[in-house]
Write a structure and sequence with these properties.
Elements lengths: L4 H43 L6 H27 L6 H33 L4 H37 L19 H30 L11 H28 L10 H30 L4 E3 L8 E3 L3 E5 L2 E7 L20 E4 L8 E5 L25 E4 L1
Antiparallel strand pairs: 1-2, 3-4, 4-6, 5-7
Length: 390
């Protein structure tokens, strides 16, 4: 029985479209495996030591789920290319593939929520707002998934009647909107990071205007997290936008499966997490290697400090305190000169009431000249409290 010319042309086009993921999915898996091998030493050095915690669990989830998702992608695409699966199988497999991708992206978004939470100094209000928005984006994804699944059988029925192996690459209904909720949510998180970056920049400009010392600068953990977030959100927004444009055909680039998207998000996220761990480890090494003088930059409100003598646990990490940073000229810097980043820490310690400044140990630098000009806090009042701020 002869096939009409129009159907034959459609079959040839679908066969060509289905062959593209056969090449891109192994390339994506190879990319991730290569990155895994060249970063395994850093993972063993900076991630493995220490007790298990939520941050480490999230790293392992993103790292190894990305590998599993790409292995699934390669196995599914190449196995289905050898036979003609049923219509129902193609409908269900389409939904499964999207959920597999969503689980990867949702894990990454949880990591980014926590980093925004850290940037905003453990602000519960920010955490609750982001959590609610995340739940809304997940609900939007599931609604679009169900809607497309209900109509997909009728959309691909004709394509399935053609003598071609595998499931046809045919976009369904409002499939273009599948990743729109995640894209919008990533944009909101990017906005949070931009706001914090703007505040940090303004604070540093003011500090420079006050002639604060900037010699021997090293980035703090805060600045590392902030810069990584900005880069990550920018690239993820580009990836998700490109994905949506491919689905609607604006780019005129044939669909090449979710493999490259899984690989890109997984690699960026794991490298970002290892980067901050590495920065923390290096800062601790600098702090323990000796040297009594330090200078800091990157954490708003900091200038210089000497002779770090006391360690306290504040919020999520260990900080060192430099005592006696009071103005000898009677001027000094008051708390009004700082933004929310320079909040005060008030506590009773040892029965003394000297002024203290808390210094992020990630900013420690050795070999600073002894004649540093300080920009210390002035007396902040209250004879029964010890004050510190950063």
């Amino acid at each position: 029985m002869s096939i009409p010319a129009a159907l034959l042309a459609e079959a040839i086009a679908l066969k060509k479209s289905a062959s593209i993921p056969l090449y891109t999915s192994p390339c994506s898996l190879t990319w991730v495996l290569h990155d895994y091998l060249i970063t395994l030493e850093d993972e063993m050095r900076y991630i493995w030591p220490g007790p298990m915690n939520s941050g480490k669990l999230l790293f392992f989830w993103v790292r190894y789920y990305t590998l599993a998702a790409l292995l699934f992608d390669v196995a599914q695409i190449h196995s289905f290319a050898t036979f003609q699966p049923s219509l129902n199988t193609c409908v269900w497999m389409d939904a499964i593939i999207r959920v597999v991708g969503a689980l990867s992206l949702w894990g990454v978004e949880i990591v980014m929520q926590l980093r925004i939470y850290a940037l905003y100094r453990l602000n519960r209000r920010v955490a609750i707002i982001n959590g609610v928005l995340f739940a809304i984006s997940v609900a939007g994804f599931m609604w679009i998934l169900i809607h497309n699944g209900m109509v997909r059988a009728s959309v691909i029925a004709q394509a399935k009647s053609l003598p071609i192996p595998g499931c046809p690459v045919v976009h369904t209904g409002i499939e273009w909107a599948q990743w729109v909720p995640a894209t919008i949510y990533e944009g909101i998180l990017f906005g949070y990071a931009l706001v914090r970056a703007g505040e940090n920049f303004i604070t540093q400009v003011r500090a420079d205007d006050k002639a604060s010392v900037r010699t021997g600068w090293r980035p703090t953990l805060y600045s590392v997290v902030l810069s990584d977030n900005l880069l990550y959100f920018f690239f993820i927004a580009c990836i998700l936008t490109f994905n949506n444009l491919m689905v609607v055909g604006v780019t005129h680039i044939p669909w090449f499966s979710y493999g490259p998207f899984h690989a890109a998000t997984g690699i960026m996220t794991t490298r970002m997490l290892m980067h901050v761990r590495k920065a923390y480890a290096l800062s601790c090494s600098n702090a323990q290697s000796g040297g009594t003088n330090t200078t800091t930059r990157g954490t708003p409100g900091l200038s210089t400090s000497q002779q770090l003598s006391t360690a306290y646990t504040i919020s999520s990490g260990e900080w060192h305190v430099a005592p006696g940073l009071t103005s000898s000229s009677g001027g000094g810097v008051t708390t009004t000169d700082f933004t929310e980043e320079s909040y005060e820490l008030k506590s009773r310690v040892g029965g003394t009431h000297d002024a203290y400044r808390v210094v992020d140990i990630s900013a420690n630098v050795k070999d600073v000249d002894d004649d540093i000009e300080f920009a210390p806090f002035a007396s902040m009042g209250g004879s029964s409290e010890r004050h510190a701020g950063y």
